[in-house]
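S1.2 Input.
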Amino acid sequence: MDGMQMRRRGLFGAGGALVVGFVLGARPAAAWTDKPVALDQVDSFLAIDAAGRVTAYVGKVDLGTGVRTGFTQIVAEELDVPMASVAVVEGDTALTPDQGATYGSLSIQVGGVQLRQAAATARRALLAEAASRFGLPPEGLRCEDAAVIAPDGRRLAFATLVGGRAFSLAVDANAPIKPPEARRVVGRSAPRVDIPEKVFGRFRYVHDLKIPGMAHGRAVRPPAMGAIAEAVDEASVAGIPGLLKVVHERGFVGVVAETEWAAIRAQRALKVRWSAWAGLPEQAKLWEHVRATPVAQRQVTSETGDPAAAIRGAAKQLSASYDFAIHTHGSMGPSCAVAEFRDGKLTSWSASQATHNLRKQLAMMLAMPVEQVRCVYLEGAGCYGRNGHEDAAVDAALLAKAVGRPVRVQWMRHEEHGWDPKGPPTLIDLRAGLDAAGKVVGWESEAFIAKGAGGNVDLVAAELGGLPRESLSSPGNIVHNLAQPYGFPAVRTTCLRLESTPFRPSWIRTPGRMQNTFAGEAFLDELAAAAGADPIAYRLSVLEDPRGREMLERVAKLSGWQARPSPVRDQGGEVLRGRGVSYVKYELVRTYVAGVAEVEVNRRSGAIRVIRFFVTHDCGQIINPDAVTAQIEGNIVATVSRVLKEELTFDRSAVTSLDWASYPSITFPEVPEIVVELVDRPAERPWGRGADRGDRPQRRHQCHLRRDRGAAAERALHPGEIPGGAAGDLGQHHAAWWVPRGTDGSAQRGGVSASWPECRSAVSRPKPLSVVSSSGPRSAIVGTEAAKPSGSRPSPRSQRPVPASETRTSQEPPSSARRSSAASVPKASR
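S1.3 Output.
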């Protein structure tokens, strides 16, 4: 066999449990295992084989964020084993516990914490077993390099103590984890375990999976999203060599062939008569459609005092409306999956971020017992949210069932852009009143958002084929962060949960939190301008949370912020330069982020250029600083892309932005310089830092470019498309939000430097770090002060053509932190 295959090895322990390691190599056996997967069992999370190698089992999966490395660090730390001796199995429903879907930046906060507690329980058991054999109290023993060591130097390897046998222990929530001062792996940057294989082209994705007897399938999608296949002409593809079958189930149509090319030919050539359907709104009237959609529920997310009365009696009243466009996930590679039925059981291999949920959906759709379905995660194209991975898995399952052979399905680019679920449109109205001193006396907001939460997203094939499904609307928990972190005396924030939304919704990179923060922070800038106040000082005047205040104060220092009201009046020249600030406490319960953006706008062309971002970030205990930095940088890159480049287009029947030309994303020359300061709190539990955390402040900075323009310039703009706030110095403040567009309506792409961005990295730690040049190897150890003093401007882009990142990591207490400068090449996983 060629390609990627898999094998399993099993060893029965004395307790009768099967200790399973899962490695890339040979094909998996069809039978399920008896391995425990309950959340309260150590054996559900960990196994140590006869050679002393450790396997960690986690229900969370690495979607490109680097959490696999974080899980490895956690296990290596708690068990005192080398990272190289730890393998991680993710998202296999037969082998891993169900820790929930991989979303909400909960992989480390939930999945990692559960894994660490299991490892701490295992470590205590290993010490106890060694103590019994040594005849010594466990308090005098220590673990090191996969062994327990006695004071006299005697060693017992983990392989001797438990290798190949089950722990047969319940996870003890009180088992002590290592204190911060004893940690040698957690809290330090470690190289991503997956990057070498990816850089050198050896990594095997789900797209590379091959199993014996595998055929290739393709779904034939209707030209209109709600159309039904009234007639299928199988004779139209009868002459294609290798065609095995045409599958037709109401609106679901597919083909299966011996080769991938034969399947593609049949997909293109098959003649189908489709019913007519034109159920989408006119894109030009999208926001009128949103306002007119029936409201299924009024959900008040915060309420204090009587804001309506306070606003009516205020010395000054302001209002604004903000919208955020529909986005697609736009994964770099199209979705892919393989399915096989054997002995009445289904195995599905996919890049699903929720394999335990997908298992239930497949069982429901196929009317099978859930115990007869196994879903296995294999890495695919990175995604931050529910894209097309699960839908490809369903296509493969239906086609495999139809032909009785394993079937591989790979989507094409037009399918990925056209049929993956979308981030729904968001429209937010805000009102506020100020007293004579410019203080907020009342705040009201209403968000027009899709109903539903973070449940399973309906599967395309099940919907088209009229097969059993949950019929849920699952846009994610998009109500969060409409409530404000600030201490306004009277507040009411309300979510108007709409009965329907134009496209099948799903969560897409920080759903709701980003849009709601974007609107709230943009409006707060309007209030600060009306009060004649500095935007950071205005926030600090109403922010009581000390950790939030620290983030704003740190970002002001990091960016060299000059305290003054915004905007600057009467700017001259062709290019206007502005800055903006934003702050978020994620869901008002965890992870603090503040950001400052510097933006340029060309008066003549309307072209927007994001020059640099400064970010301060507090996610509690940091497992891997470099991974946190990579995520923040990725968030900023995605933010710039979504705000300035990306927008779904559609007609009354279907999506029309089906490729990268019609749905453009950011290019390397458009990436801004990025400067990050991390605050590490090693004595606290880790919070999320991944897909979502850095998005909200950055999102606001670029969206809202406020200017007074003449009639000629105004004709080149389209109003209300991606509103929001941040380049607060660019001109007069209005409640009309503009995005520069070409005179033909296309997104403006001019005025971008051809040089690569610079994202420099300066890391502060309790001990000095090496300096890494963007063009050379490590150099000398630096002292206690950073190479670039706080508040000074980064060097011009022209001095450093290769992008790098600047990160500062501060540990509590802040005064003990040392600074050093490290510039690194870009992360391969961006």
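S1.4 Remarks. Confidence is low (pLDDT under 50) at residues 1-31, 690-694, 696-805, 812-830.
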